[in-house]
Amino acid sequence: MIEFRGVTKQYPDGTLAIEHVDIVIQPRTITVLVGSSGSGKTTLLRMINRMVDPTSGQVLVDGTDVATVDPVRLRRSIGYVMQNGGLLPHRRIVDNVATVPLLRGVAKSAARARSLELLDTVGLDRGLADKYPRQLSGGQQQRVGVARALAADPNILLMDEPFGAVDPIVRLELQTELRRLQSALDKTVVFVTHDIDEAFALADQMVILRTGGIVAQIGTPAEVLAHPADDFVASFIGADRGQRRLRLQPRDPASGRIVVVDSAGRPAGLIEDDHASIGDGASPDVKAS
Amino acid sequence: MNLFIDAFAWIFDPANWVAGAQSPLPIQDRLAEHLLYTFVAVLIAALIALPLGFYIGHTGKGRQFVISFTGGMRALPTLGVLFFLTMVLGYSMVSTTANFLGTMIALVLLAIPSILAGAYSGLESVDRQTIDSARASGMTELQILVKVEIPLSLPLIVGGLRSGVLQVIATVVIASYVGLGGLGRIIASGIGLNDYNRILGGAILITALALLVDGVFAVIQRLTATPGVGGPADTGRSAVRRQAQRQPATVGTPNQERE
């Protein structure tokens, strides 16, 4: 469990990056920190592995205040994935993945063997092991970044806009993959993004931040959709523009399917099971296309 | 052209290479001295400039001060420094020691700016994200320096050394003004004897030596380019100079919010 208790970050020039934040992150869930630029979401994430120290308040991991843990040891026990993978360009893929085990003093051959297994885990061909990061596509580099973060078998995985630099199709693929990995490996994932759709796609719990590092709302995607805390959240998730307001069209006589459309009448998806009981209006489980 | 042919003839005249020939001959002794002075001066300069450059490049501290300071050092006339030092040092020690020490200090001062610029600009050229990611993975600051920053900036670091070595090789000539050896002795004695072959021959030897050493460094630079990182497009002395002259950009500390 990760807990933020009254966390504030003020820079020496007086700017408040984070203002009195309280968040509880349950183990083995995906929590998405979402907000626009300057909302402090990355700063919050980086407080967990002490890349940033709060000016006041505490960050606790499994009940231990991280401020009392040596940062290097702490970071080696927490996986970190960043945009573009953040790989070391002068090392081969297999050595990149083995970075943390090697730092921890694992024997080279054992670390290599583990790296190869991890390439399988993240769905990469072992043939890529001896290539350099530059020779891989953006999506592949991103997978290597995930494999590297998993190498030390951490309980916590921090992901800082990891899929920001890949094209939408690959991003979707990586999101699906992340959900699969998370449920298979039972990791606690904290994920930062500015893309609200990505947040909806991944989150068990979402934390919506507004400029100045203030928490606007915390809740499950369904809760956030159903009850936006305020106008800011409503506008941020697109509810005020009707993008999330879906309704059902009458059954198409030719195909017998029910089409879901948004408030502008643009088709947004199909109802999978015609016999499902449908309440008043759309439920958040309807998958937007 | 005749002048050059005569000069080359002088260089290749076996009589000038006979051991025990009258000073400033034989040539190989002067060549060896020249290289020795260069090596010692650059070694001392590197021992001072590399750690300092790594410190500045890694922490971003003191950058402004060092840029203006080394800029000033580049403008120092080495010959003036040499005479000044031998005079000052001459008060407190034997003149031969004073001359040697003065020459070495002057040459070290000459080599420091290039090596320093190569080291810190090399480290600054490393992608901030790569360093940030290495730190987030749990590398200590020393591990970041040794395993990430130095390997990735090696071509620029070697470029700084290359530039420093070249300047020193060309300038060791002045050692002959205070009675030390090196190829400068050949030129000086040529001037004394009005022997143009000897003057030009000495100059050609220095040029050839400089080109040869530069070539060696070019090869080293190519070899140090890490395999995973692009071609040698932006390495070499010109890149070091460009970076050294570049106005300081705001370099964010890794702890700052990236957004």
From TrEMBL, chain A:
The record's keywords, sorted A to Z, are: ATP-binding, Nucleotide-binding, Transport
- List the InterPro entries hit by this protein, alphabetically: AAA+_ATPase, ABC_transporter-like_ATP-bd, ABC_transporter-like_CS, P-loop_NTPase
Region (Disordered) residue spans: 270-289
Q: Which SUPFAM superfamilies does the record match to this protein?
A: P-loop containing nucleoside triphosphate hydrolases
**Quick one: signal sequence residues?**
none
Q: Which Pfam families match?
A: ABC_tran
> What GO molecular-function term can you cite, just one?
ATP binding
Q: Which domain of life is it from?
A: Bacteria
* Transmembrane regions: none
Q: Which family does it belong to?
A: Belongs to the ABC transporter superfamily.
Q: What is the official name of this protein in its record?
A: ATP-binding cassette domain-containing protein
Species the sequence originates in: Agromyces allii
From TrEMBL, chain B:
Q: Keyword Iron-sulfur on this protein?
A: no
**Which Gene3D superfamilies does this chain map to?**
MetI-like
Q: Where is this region: Disordered?
A: 229-259
Locations of Polar residues compositional bias?
245-259
Q: What range(s) does the ABC transmembrane type-1 domain occupy?
A: 31-217
Q: How does it sit in the membrane?
A: Multi-pass membrane protein
SUPFAM superfamilies with a match to the protein in the record:
MetI-like
Question: Does Transmembrane count among this protein's keywords?
Answer: yes
Q: Which residues cross the membrane?
A: 36-56, 76-94, 100-123, 168-187, 199-220
- Principal localization reads membrane
Q: Which domain of life is it from?
A: Bacteria
As for subcellular location, the record says: Cell membrane; Membrane
Q: What is this protein called?
A: ABC transporter permease
What organism does this protein naturally occur in?
Agromyces allii
**What are the top taxonomic ranks of the organism?**
Bacteria, Bacillati, Actinomycetota, Actinomycetes, Micrococcales
